[in-house]
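This week, think about what follows.
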Amino acid sequence: MNTSGQSQPDGVSAQPPEPRVTRREAIAGAAALAALSGLAGPIGAALGQTSAGGRRPAPAAPAQPATPKSPSPIDHILRKGASADWSLKTFVHLDSFQSVNVLSPTTGPGAGTPDGRPAVEIIPIEFKTAAIVFPVSPKTSTSEGLPGGLSAQIRVDGKAVASTPTWLDDLPGGSRYGKWELRDVTARTIDIDFESRSKSWEVTFDEAAASKIVWPKANRWSADAASSLGAQTIERLSYVDPSAPAVKAALDKWTAGKPPQSIPPIQLAKFLAGRVLETVQPSGNGLMTSRTGLIEGFQLNGPEATLLAGRASEHDIASLLCSFYRAVGLPSRVVIGYDVTKSQGSGAGFARQSQGELRSWVEFCVIDEATNDPKTGKPPQAWIPVDVVRQRNSSSKAPPFDRAWKFFGNNEDGDDIIPMAFHFHPPLTGAVAHGSPCLWGWMTTPVTQVVTQSIRFMASTPARTGAPRPGGGYK
């Protein structure tokens, strides 16, 4: 992770405004997709055919001046807009497990209290060693970590415990985690307060330039991209699964069995995003709650169940789109983030009050194999954001293919969302959470703990750029 706070993420540029997709380039991409799938709808609209209602789509706006030439189109396909620096606090509370004995006191010694009430047995938190892990703010298309990007305060039964973090690098998808160690603890409660510092920004997408990017012939993906092609699993659930039978069946149907990589990656990614948008309806917040009503973690069902139901939380919808992208050989990753517009500064965490706070979307990777980045000596790459759930807020039908989509590559809300992780659960052997996955995890010896967990969040910003919005906030 870049902690300098100065360099731009891969593919992000502060160049002049991007052009819209030209009609010629859009028609070429749409024609290729039509050949691939034989489907009408958005593709037919892009070709100028009349819609089912007999209306032609409005003509595309005139193209703006072309982006300045550079060694690679990747250098300018994402342009950074208004930004904000954020501090996000994540409060994890662990409580000893309580077992209620409902037997009467007459059935045996210790079975109940003297007045006949059920006895409560408390199983303490007890371990010789523990390693607590939490994600460092990731470098994404709309964010990067700031210096001193992750810290933690740990309290055992309310008393502060010092622990110096170590850092776990080169994890799948470009993830990085902090690790804090504890020893010889017996307690009723443990609280871990993580604080992440990052910068988020809007992005606008030069789809015309990006459409020129082709599939790499030599499969020269970077390490973080190459690690974003397989399944992602929590225990026995593969929540991202490119080989799931339902994913393969839907892909064969949508493409009429033709090779997906016969289509350039940007056009294919947009086509698949449109299919997922029209196939699955957002439903529920995808969160589990603790007995106190606070967030316990994510409720994930996997791509098979999502396609079968035709409705799912945005976390499952993002995981489904990621599964399709990986199934066609396009590196992709789910990004889990916190939407500060829903609960800024409120310390929110009650699931019934926090729908929409925790969000998920997808980034896919493209590279330009024809050039090399002078800094790395490797082909330049960019991660492109796609938020089909937010795109679907406008319509349950995909927009015309020849138009820029508000949340395909573009994201005007990026400065108000704090990316937190690429994994719902740490991709580390032996890491466990309790009840539901929720970003963090730990490993304890000699045994795994039996505890309950809850989690809440609070965000604040010391600085941001852009003009104030009419209704508050900035843009």
Observations:
- The mean pLDDT is 83.
